[in-house]
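[Discussion] Sanity-checking designs against the backbone

I'm trying to build intuition for which residues belong where. Below is a structure token string of 145 positions. I'd appreciate it if someone posts a full sequence so I can compare it with mine line by line.
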């Protein structure tokens, strides 16, 4: 691997789109190490590791704002592993809550599917009829407007 990579090379190495890298730059999550006289951005191994960090954190469900916080903890001399652990525990609670909500949705869909009589006309379809009913203040974890 060369010492410094152009943006296209970096994108290919990590498996992201060039526009993704540019977007992360606009959010100050990532930046080029230097520029060539022609203006091409150049990235070193640290930038590659940082980009992999971002993508891996996203795969664990962290938002870009949360990732920025993790990156700040990563470079802070005052931060401790416990600070990162608390962020991970918070994310775990969020993921577990989403999993419970998805399980509830799955049970509701299973129930609706059991009520369906495939041969009847759609004007009598219990699934379609249930979609017309009032569902309460929460729909998929978001407050209705």
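Best answer:
Here's mine. Compare freely.
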């Amino acid at each position: 691997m060369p010492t410094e990579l152009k943006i296209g090379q970096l994108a290919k190495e990590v498996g992201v789109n060039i526009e993704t890298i540019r977007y992360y730059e606009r959010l100050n999550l990532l930046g080029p190490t230097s520029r060539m006289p022609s203006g091409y951005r150049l990235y070193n191994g640290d930038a590659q590791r940082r980009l992999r960090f971002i993508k891996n954190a996203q795969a664990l469900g962290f938002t870009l704002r949360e990732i920025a916080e993790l990156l700040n903890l990563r470079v802070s001399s005052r931060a401790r592993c416990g600070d990162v652990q608390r962020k991970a525990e918070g994310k775990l609670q969020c993921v577990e809550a989403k999993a419970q909500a998805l399980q509830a949705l799955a049970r509701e869909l299973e129930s609706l599917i059991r009520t369906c009589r495939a041969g009847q006309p759609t004007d009598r379809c219990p699934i379609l009829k249930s979609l017309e009913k009032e569902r309460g203040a929460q729909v998929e974890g978001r407050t209705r407007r």
